[in-house]
Amino acid sequence: MERDPIDKILGHDQPEISDEGWHRTAEVDEWVFAAWNADASAGVISGYRIIHGEGWYWAAAVQEGYPVLHLSEFGIALRPDPLLVKAHGLWAEHICLDPLRQWSIGNETFAVALTDPAEALERGYGTPTPIGCDLEWYATDLPEPISGTQSGFVQEGVMHGLVEVIGMPSIQFTEAPARRWRRWGTAPMGPVDMPIARAHSGLRAVFAFPDDSVIDLVVTSAGWHRRVPVSRRADGRLEDR
Question: Which of 26, 131, 220, 227 is most buried (most C-beta within 10 Å)?
């Protein structure tokens, strides 16, 4: 029987099992999970960051023919289990079922349905929409170190599960291509580095963070990619180019 490829990293220069959990001495600690259909017709992305003793949670689900379901919550008080996220109207959790192999990602909350994803760059007014995610991420390859000044790795995998939505079709993922990023280090830490999209399906999610960083993402057949750089104008407003 072929060995589990993750077993091959033991004893080598690879992440420690303990790196899956919270690095209490790090100024910033982050977990990001993303999945998409191979035809780029749907996708989901979920991120959680612990920074200076509080939590930032952000996520989006997209599918052809429907508004983007966007949610973000900042300034979240940490709990004894720091990967359990609770705020007003929000419950989310990230459970490492098998280090470097399997994670469970879930939430129950109200997302905002945005016809124009760029609305998230400002006040993000949209239609409150109940949403629930029950997703399982499985590794299919070894972690690859992230280059730069921060510690961490990126890892390929597949996603199984369901994004349930009231008032829209639910989004099913079965052996869907997936990717995760695990980073920790010093502040400031910008959004995860993704390739710039050369072509995409038009499915888009945009996030603006309290540290003034912005990430503008689109779904491609190769995964979630950056759309174009987004910056702040001299008057302080965010510019969507």
Answer: 131
For residue 125, the Cα-to-chain-centroid distance in whole angstroms is: 21
Beta strands in the chain (DSSP E): 28-36, 42-51, 54-63, 68-77, 84-87, 90-98, 102-114, 127-139, 144-145, 151-165, 171-185, 204-208, 214-220, 223-226, 231-232, 238-239
Q: Please, what CATH class does the domain formed by 27-194 belong to?
A: mainly beta
Distance CA 98, CA 96 (A): 6
pTM for the model: 0.89
| Residues 4-26: b if buried by 16+ CB within 10 A, e if exposed | eebeeeeeeebbeeebbeeeeeb
Are 28 and 51 a contacting pair, CB within 8 Å?
yes
Percentage of the residues of the chain whose pLDDT score is greater than 90? 78
The C-alpha angle with vertex 183 and arms to 121 and 176, in degrees rounded to 5, equals 75
* Chain center to CA of 78: 19
